[in-house]
């Protein structure tokens, strides 16, 4: 187990380094340089030179790379070109909000999706099953920001049940809860469909398998069969998907936060892109990548713990 | 192995696949929707009732009426025409992306699967790295660097899609590489190039085509999303994304605009997804679902 | 000898896409205490369905259209699901064909063997573990304690099958059904398992049913054998009798095809020409008629009678006479 853990973590770190290198080198693809870009076409040469120096762009490339890696390791992701605030501070401020939104969305989707998936298994091959199937596919297909806009229109503008903007007032838990409902639904709804299908497929496959038959042949009660034998196996693919899904949910947050004007990583990065504020963009991307790798690696290790056969085979 | 796209390359024929597809109500509906949108895209100049760029501020925010079936936007432009031309943009970008990314992915995948181990290791690392970047984030990073616009959009979407295709092709190639008939070819002295072109290529293309067609709705969504953020297709050119944005900003003044703008996007993605699922079921139900983005 | 499991006139069909498949037709068998009954036949003859019926573990799309399966006089197919569950594992146990898929891959062998003793409510986990350990040792697993702590995929095929046998014997069931116990094993392991089963059977008081297509296994293990073809029992009797003097043309053909029976040099191995009848629409007369060397006109129009050639001997054929 330890061996496998070391291999997985090592791989994740390697990937992170590659991504960092890639992101950093994109700076050199800019026609001109980041300084000119940030200051716009009317900047004077002296101003550009000053900014260039501040951004460390006058140093040799290798030194820049080294500085970059060294800084990143200590949490220094550079400075916002405009406000001079450390990028990391901005991320640290915004990330928890997006995390909460993502967590609520995925959690809700998981509960609802699993319930629907089990319902489809219990009533398999009936009209209900087929309807759920169509519903699932439809939910997966609709873009989250379209759902967000429609939800906004119906529930916030027409019915006025829930707020249209913001994350609620600080200290007022009730208003925060109200504010998170619509965005969470918009974010999570695609996943409800996907998880429902996944759970259904996994459970069906397991229930038909030989060892479930054995358990029945030995007269084990159905409840124990489902809980101990079937679910333990069926849950494994779900965990991987959830881990991967977390990364994708956080991406979807970019749009949903924009629609609902919620402060978070999404609004941070879209604002920075509009202003060509590359350090913020790069810092955010790296942070999110690191987070995503962390989640996926943890999920892999958890699966290896649950399913002994995975440990013997390193993922290709 | 009961797959229509089997080990001898090529489908077992269009007709039986089509029939299987039409028997499934979802697949049939998907096909219908897709055909409608393809027609819209191809014949936009003929079908659109008005010039999508024609500004007429006096007529702004009109609800759907006889003269403007879908109403007008905040600058008085006919929404129906903008939507029809938007279809052209959406499908054009999607098809271009899929073709280019598919071709590059095919080449990289074949190289990774059939080439030397060290090259494979490097490529796999690159693919993994690309997949670890949340897609939108990477897109945003590239857009920051290169500047927003339709060309950037295509570049971004292509780059983001390549690893997925390359991985699939690589997996297929790896599994076929040690199969008997390839070994036989090698034993007979066939060159690598010949093996790749004549024997590997036809066998790996099948699942790729299915994946490509299932990716089209994803790309449409991505393009719409980025355009909605004003980082994709630049106004005044119509894209479903920026029409939605216009609707969003005018939400209080003219809610109908947002409804109208969202419908084609939803229908198009539903249509392509249903078609993709239907095709997959008709060809080989064992191919995996893709993850929603 | 007491009859522990009686199958009387059992008919079973499956509902499949395209119609119904008649898997068993008027099958009657009796398994007695202290005796090993073999059920022999090729794939598709219905022996697996018979094995499933004997443990009341039928598939979802299976329907019993006639007959009974009685365990100690009780009709087990018509019992409630809960009553059937109480029977399984405790009174009637099964050894599955493929131990790899039979055991749960994510639980250790020990945990599963402990679970299988759930019927013994009063025992603690450590007691159950001790019983499992003893049983594993009895089936010849040298390091039983280590085996308990292993996962199924970490054991060799032979050890897994031994563990499966141990599992079945844990509760000292009255009836033991072995469904193709050696099919998934290679030749050396097969010999070992047969040897083990013979040893265990010497001490075993209950009835054993061995379902297989392997003539050698039947010869080594069984006292009596029932030959099945296309869902029917076509011949039944003591093993020695049947092997030396088979009466039914199918049995004769089967025995003739056994490579072990061929002593001279042959240029072609013998086969039975023709195909199995379509079980979705079985023929009116004898099922074996199209392939039978002794076929007469009445074979195709009349169902063959059950000819009793002795107290324990039966053949389902027009051409056989007492």
How would you describe the overall organization of this protein?
By secondary structure, chain A is mostly helical. Chain A contains 13 helices and no strands. The two termini of chain A are 17 Å apart. The mean pLDDT of chain A is 78. Chain B has one domain: Orthogonal Bundle (MetI-like fold). Helices cover 71% and strands 0% of the residues of chain B. Chain B has helices at residues 14-23, 25-42, 44-47, 79-114, 117-132, 135-146, 150-177, 180-187, 192-228, 240-249, 255-283. Residues 1-12 and 286-293 of chain B have low confidence and may be disordered. Helices cover 32% and strands 25% of the residues of chain C. Chain C is built from twelve helices and twelve strands. In chain C, helix 5 crosses helix 7 (157-169). The radius of gyration of chain C is 20 Å and the shape is globular. The model of chain C has no long low-confidence stretch (mean pLDDT 86). The chains are: A mainly alpha (316), B mainly alpha (293), C alpha/beta (322). At the A-B interface, helix 1, helix 6, helix 7, helix 8 and helix 10 of A face helix 5, helix 6, helix 9, helix 10 and helix 11 of B.
Strands of the largest sheet of chain C, in order across it?
Answer: 6-7-8-3-9-10-12-11
CATH architecture tag of chain C = 3-Layer(aba) Sandwich
Q: How many discrete structural domains of chain B?
A: 1
Mean pLDDT of chain C: 86
CATH arch. level architecture of chain B = Orthogonal Bundle
Name the structural class of chain C: alpha/beta
Helical fraction of chain C equals 25-40%
Largest interface in this structure: A-B, 63 and 50 residues
Q: List how many beta strands of chain C DSSP finds.
A: 12
In the CATH hierarchy, the third-tier topology of chain B is known as MetI-like fold
Question: How would you sum up the global shape of chain C?
Answer: globular
Radius of gyration of chain B: 22 Å
Report a brief summary of the structure.
Chain A is an all-alpha fold and 316 residues long. Chain A has helices at residues 2-26, 34-39, 45-54, 61-73, 87-122, 127-141, 144-158, 173-207, 210-217, 222-260, 265-274, 278-306, 308-312. Chain C has 12 helices and 12 strands.
Write the layout of secondary structure elements.
The complex is a heterotrimer of chains A (316), B (293) and C (322).
Chain A: H1 2-26, H2 34-39, H3 45-54, H4 61-73, H5 87-122, H6 127-141, H7 144-158, H8 173-207, H9 210-217, H10 222-260, H11 265-274, H12 278-306, H13 308-312
Chain B: H1 14-23, H2 25-42, H3 44-47, H4 79-114, H5 117-132, H6 135-146, H7 150-177, H8 180-187, H9 192-228, H10 240-249, H11 255-283
Helix pairs in contact in B: 1-11, 2-4, 2-11, 4-5, 4-7, 4-9, 5-7, 6-7, 7-9, 9-10, 9-11, 10-11
Chain C: E1 3-16, E2 19-32, E3 36-40, H1 47-54, E4 62-71, E5 74-75, H2 81-87, E6 92-95, H3 99-102, H4 109-115, H5 125-138, H6 144-148, H7 157-169, E7 175-179, H8 187-203, E8 207-212, H9 215-221, E9 224-229, E10 232-238, H10 239-244, H11 249-257, H12 297-301, E11 306-310, E12 313-316
Parallel strand pairs in C: 3-8, 3-9, 6-7, 7-8
Antiparallel strand pairs in C: 1-2, 1-4, 4-5, 9-10, 10-12, 11-12
Helix pairs in contact in C: 4-5, 5-7, 7-8
């Amino acid at each position: 187990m330890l061996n496998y853990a070391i291999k997985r973590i090592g791989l994740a770190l390697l990937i992170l380094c590659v991504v960092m290198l890639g992101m950093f080198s994109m700076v050199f693809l800019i026609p001109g340089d980041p300084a000119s870009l940030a200051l716009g076409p009317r900047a004077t040469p002296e101003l550009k030179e000053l900014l260039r120096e501040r951004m460390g762009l006058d140093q040799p490339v290798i030194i820049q790379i080294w500085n970059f890696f060294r800084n990143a390791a200590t949490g220094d992701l550079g400075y916002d070109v405009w406000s001079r605030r450390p990028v990391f501070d901005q991320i640290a401020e915004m990330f928890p909000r997006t995390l909460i939104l993502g967590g609520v969305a995925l959690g809700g989707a998981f509960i609802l999706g699993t319930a629907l998936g089990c319902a489809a298994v219990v009533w398999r091959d009936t009209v209900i099953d087929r309807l759920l199937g169509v519903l699932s596919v439809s939910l997966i297909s609709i873009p989250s920001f379209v759902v967000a806009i429609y939800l906004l229109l119906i529930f916030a503008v027409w019915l006025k049940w829930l707020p249209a903007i913001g994350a609620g007032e600080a200290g007022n838990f009730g208003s925060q809860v109200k504010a998170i409902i619509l965005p969470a639904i918009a974010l999570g709804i695609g996943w409800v469909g996907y998880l429902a299908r996944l759970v259904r497929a996994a459970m069906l496959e397991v229930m038909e398998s030989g060892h479930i038959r054995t358990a029945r042949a030995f007269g084990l009660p159905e409840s124990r069969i489902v809980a101990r034998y079937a679910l333990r196996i069926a849950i494994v693919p779900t965990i991987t998907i959830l881990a991967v899904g977390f990364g994708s949910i956080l991406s979807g947050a970019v749009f949903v936060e924009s629609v609902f004007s919620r402060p978070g990583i999404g609004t941070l990065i879209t604002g920075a892109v509009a202003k060509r504020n590359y350090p913020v963009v790069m810092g955010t991307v790296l942070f999110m990548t690191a987070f995503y790798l962390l989640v996926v690696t943890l999920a892999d290790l958890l699966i290896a713990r649950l399913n002994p056969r995975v440990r013997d085979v390193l993922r290709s | 192995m009961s797959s229509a796209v089997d080990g001898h390359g090529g489908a077992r024929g269009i007709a039986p696949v089509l029939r299987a597809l039409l028997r499934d109500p979802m697949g049939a509906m998907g096909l219908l929707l897709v055909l409608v949108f393809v027609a819209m895209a191809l014949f936009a100049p003929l079908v659109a009732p008005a010039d999508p760029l024609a500004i007429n501020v006096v007529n702004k925010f009109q609800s759907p009426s006889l003269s403007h079936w879908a109403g007008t936007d905040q600058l008085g432009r006919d929404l129906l025409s903008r939507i029809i031309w938007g279809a052209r943009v959406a499908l054009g970008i999607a098809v271009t992306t899929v073709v280019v990314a598919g071709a590059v992915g095919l080449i990289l995948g074949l190289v990774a699967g059939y080439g030397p181990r060290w090259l494979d290791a490097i490529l796999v690392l690159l693919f993994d790295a690309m997949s670890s970047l949340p897609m939108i984030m990477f897109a945003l990073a590239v857009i920051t660097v290169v500047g927003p616009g339709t060309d950037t959009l295509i570049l971004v979407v292509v780059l983001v899609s390549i690893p997925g295709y390359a991985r699939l092709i690589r997996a297929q190639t790896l599994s076929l590489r040690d199969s008997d008939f390839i070994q036989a070819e090698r034993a007979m002295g066939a060159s690598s190039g010949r093996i790749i072109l004549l024997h590997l290529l036809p066998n790996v293309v099948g699942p790729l085509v299915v994946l490509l067609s299932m990716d089209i709705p994803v790309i449409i969504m991505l393009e719409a999303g980025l355009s909605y953020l004003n980082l994709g297709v630049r106004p005044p050119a119509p894209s479903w994304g920026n029409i939605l944005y216009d609707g969003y900003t005018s939400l209080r003044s003219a809610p109908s605009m947002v409804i109208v703008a969202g419908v084609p996007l939803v229908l198009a993605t539903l249509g392509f997804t249903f078609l993709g699922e239907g095709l997959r079921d008709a060809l080989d139900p064992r191919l995996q679902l893709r993850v929603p983005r | 000898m007491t009859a522990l499991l009686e199958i009387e006139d059992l008919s079973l069909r499956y509902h499949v896409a395209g119609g119904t498949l008649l898997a068993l037709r008027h099958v009657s068998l009796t398994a007695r205490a202290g005796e090993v009954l073999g059920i022999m036949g090729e794939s598709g003859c219905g022996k697996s369905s018979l094995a499933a019926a004997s443990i009341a573990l039928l598939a979802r799309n299976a329907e019993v259209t006639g007959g009974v399966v009685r365990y100690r006089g009780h009709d087990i197919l018509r019992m409630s699901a809960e009553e059937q569950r109480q029977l399984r594992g405790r009174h009637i146990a099964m050894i599955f064909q493929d131990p790899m898929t039979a055991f749960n891959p994510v639980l250790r062998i020990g945990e599963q063997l402990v679970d299988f003793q759930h019927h013994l409510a009063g025992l603690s986990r450590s007691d159950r573990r001790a019983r499992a350990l003893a049983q594993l040792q009895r089936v010849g697993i040298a390091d039983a304690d280590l085996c308990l702590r292993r996962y199924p995929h970490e054991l060799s095929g032979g050890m897994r099958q031994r563990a499966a046998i141990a599992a079945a014997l844990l509760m000292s069931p009255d009836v033991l059904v072995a469904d193709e116990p050696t099919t998934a094993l290679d030749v050396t392991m097969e010999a070992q398992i047969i040897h083990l089963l013979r040893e265990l059977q010497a001490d075993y008081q209950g009835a054993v049913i061995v379902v297989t297509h392997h003539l050698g296994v039947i010869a080594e293990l069984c006292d009596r054998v029932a030959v099945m073809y296309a869902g029917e029992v076509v011949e039944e009797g003591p093993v020695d009798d049947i092997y030396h003097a088979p009466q039914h043309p199918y049995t004769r053909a089967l025995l003739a095809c056994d490579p072990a029976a061929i002593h001279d040099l042959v240029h072609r191995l013998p086969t039975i020409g023709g195909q199995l009848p379509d079980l979705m629409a079985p023929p009116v007369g004898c099922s074996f008629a199209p392939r039978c060397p002794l076929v007469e006109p009445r074979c195709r129009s009349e169902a063959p009678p059950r000819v009793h050639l002795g107290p324990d001997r039966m053949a389902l054929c027009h051409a056989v006479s007492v």
